[in-house]
Design a protein that fits this description.
alpha+beta; elongated; disordered C terminus
Length: about 150
Amino acid sequence: MKPGDELPPLTIPITRTLIVAGAVASRDYQDVHHDAERAREKGSPDIFMNILTTNGLVGRYVTDHFGPRAVLRKVAIRLGAPNHPGDTMTLSGTVTEVAGETATVRVVGANGLGHHVTGTVTVDVDVDVDVDVVVDVDVDVDVEVAR
């Protein structure tokens, strides 16, 4: 990993289900993310993806590339052209800086209207994660059977 390395692109079909599910999962109940009629009343041609869904897709893109031991440290994004149902967003990334096990990646997500998202992600790669799991189960069950 070195500055200038490019991540392989990730193409994501923008479906109505993805937009609505992302909004619901992030508890964003703004009507423009699930009600096409209300979105049109507010000047949009259709519903559009919320920033939290975009943020999650950007994080997934970077961690999918660097693997299961990667840890996101910072995600700083800016939205541009909206993601509407029926479009496709292609995420691309370039490593801009490397310091030890930490990389900074410039990410761009483009759709048919232009750049949907631009930003940087700081990620620790090849992080050694030690997790001690202690399970203490104390079960006390009293059962009475009526006859």
